[in-house]
Task: structure prediction
Amino acid sequence: MNIAIMGAMVEEITPILERVTLKETIEYAKNKYYLASYKQHNLVIAYSKIGKVHSALTASIMLEKFKAEKLLFSGVAGAINEQLHIGDLIIATKLCQHDLDISAFGHPYGYVPESKIYVETSSTLNNIAKKVADKLNINLLEGIIATGDQFINDTQKKQWIKDTFNADAIEMEGASVGFVCDAFGVEFFVLRAISDSADMDAGFDFDKFLETSAQNSADFLIKMLDYIDE
Ligand code: OS5
Result:
């Protein structure tokens, strides 16, 4: 079974690369793809660079060129739900694009014809995450993640995203990866650890907590690999 593991920033995959056995590095379409193994799993690991376009490209390559049969995303996010604090983990039940707007034609925010507002993650992978969290006594929130090509550091914008999409956390890649996987019929999973609260302090908090929160997410994802069948 080939499993894809991706992040957006190098900081999000470095703690994963440190835990696997690296076999080969392949450069393709201006990105590096790390072929590796962890226990019984063959892995392809990459960071996409920031945003929906880069992450959709990387996800597509992982599925089509590297034949990944599942895709797991690990990284950081801004908190919307007030239960979420720096370092806390959230898994997405579904994701949406908060910056997709053809409301001028009467469509709801986040919707374009022949698609849907929300893309759902794999309940099998989410159940594995919940089992790992239970076993290790780790607090894991399940919720809606909103994705867009903006770093949100504004409480009004954050409130709009919360009210419009019922979102619990915000980031810049999850939904685009999700829509790619959904189109190819590949199970996917999005895990994020909170780096900031998407408010006026977000830039400062993000810089301060990126590394530790990315490590939290990566540590949890590695533990999940023990429970994913060959
Ligand atoms: O990947 C982007 C989305 N990530 C999740 C996230 C988030 N998204 C939206 N709003 C928030 N409040 C969020 N909090 C966490 C994180 C990441 C955000 S964009 C960060 C850009 C940081 C940066 N820019 N330049 N550098 C770092 C330096 C640099 C220079 C050369 C090469 C690489 C980096």
User: Anything to note?
Assistant: Residues 2-227 form a domain with the Rossmann fold fold (CATH 3.40.50.1580). Residues 8-9, 50, 76-78, 151-153, 170-173, 195-196, 198, 202, 206 surround OS5 (CB under 6 Å). The CA atoms of residues 102 and 109 lie 7 Å apart. Strands lie at 2-7, 21-28, 31-38, 41-47, 70-79, 89-97, 118-120, 140-147, 169-171, 187-196.
